[in-house]
């Protein structure tokens, strides 16, 4: 009887080992996606960022790529940007939006900070931040850089189409105020200089349009209007009809 019991225990152990082994084998061969097996990961392209698709691990090396040598990530179709995001929807009117998180109760909305890299030690330059509108095709218009008023949704656009191939630099004075736009009604205050590198010329009016200078009197009690005709300047406290 004792021999029979020992024999049955041994058979039970052997059967259990076989069943457990078959279960593990079936799990890795049937229950685990083939594309997710460790041995199969070696078939993916270098630098691919893997993602789940249809229950399996997939890659798109052409548009989702990590460059481990240069520590850069590519999203989209570019090989020269550390981070490149593009809207691939070709339908007109679609925008690529970078949006800061809205604030909760009693919390301000989150801002978006775009920084150029700082220069390293020595005489080095800081990195620039470039905003580049799209080029046109055919009789279309070049893109513009816009700013939106969140109160009413209206836009103000910068038109850069008149810039030539040579770069231009616009220097901001260390003051706050309103941008002066020529050819429009403007109010100027403080010290305003109109000067070039050598001689300066100020045009008020033209050969076919009258010009007028209105100056506040030094005693602060009136205005003097200055006009010109055939080389003769005329000053008057009465506003001429050509002065607006």
* Most strands sheet: 3 strands, antiparallel
The topology string of helices and strands comes to HHEEEEEEEEE
Strand content: 15-25%
Quick one: how many beta strands?
9
Radius of gyration: 37 Å
Number of separate helices: 2
Low-confidence stretches: none
How helical, in percent, are the residues? 10-25%
- N-to-C span: 125 Å
The assigned structural class equals alpha+beta
Report the mean per-residue pLDDT as an integer: 76
Task: Please identify the oligomeric state.
Answer: single chain
Q: Globular, elongated, flat, extended or rod-shaped: what is the shape?
A: elongated
**Spatial ordering of strands, largest sheet:** 7-8-9
Written account of the structure:
The chain is an alpha+beta fold and 244 residues long. Among the domains are: 1-32; 41-84, no CATH class; 203-244, no CATH class. Helix content is 14%, strand content 16%. The protein contains 2 helices and 9 strands, in the order H-H-E-E-E-E-E-E-E-E-E. The strands form 4 sheets. The protein has a 3-stranded antiparallel β-sheet, with no helix packed on it. Strand 8 and strand 9 (232-236) form a beta hairpin. The radius of gyration is 37 Å and the shape is elongated.
């Amino acid at each position: 009887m004792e021999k029979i019991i020992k024999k049955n225990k041994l058979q039970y152990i052997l059967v259990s080992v076989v069943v457990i082994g078959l279960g593990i084998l079936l799990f890795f061969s049937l229950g685990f996606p083939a594309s997710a097996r460790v041995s199969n990961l070696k078939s993916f392209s270098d630098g691919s960022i893997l993602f789940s698709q249809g229950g399996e691990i997939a890659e798109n090396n052409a548009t989702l790529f990590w460059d481990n040598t240069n520590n850069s990530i590519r999203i989209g179709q570019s090989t020269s940007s550390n981070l490149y995001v593009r809207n691939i929807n070709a339908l007109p009117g679609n925008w690529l939006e970078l949006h800061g998180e809205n604030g909760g109760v009693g919390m301000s909305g989150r801002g978006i900070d775009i920084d150029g890299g700082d220069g390293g030690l020595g005489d080095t330059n800081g990195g620039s931040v470039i905003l580049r509108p799209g080029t046109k095709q055919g009789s279309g218009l070049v893109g513009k850089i816009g700013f939106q008023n969140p109160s009413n949704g209206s836009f103000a656009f910068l038109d850069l189409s008149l810039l030539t191939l040579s770069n231009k630099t616009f220097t901001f004075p260390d003051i706050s105020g309103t941008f002066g736009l020529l050819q429009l009604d403007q109010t100027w205050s403080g010290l305003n200089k109109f000067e070039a590198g050598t001689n300066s010329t100020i045009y008020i009016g033209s050969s076919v349009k009258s010009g007028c200078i209105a100056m506040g009197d030094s005693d602060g009690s009136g205005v003097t209007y200055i006009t010109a005709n055939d080389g003769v300047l005329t000053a008057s406290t009465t506003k001429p009809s050509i002065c607006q």
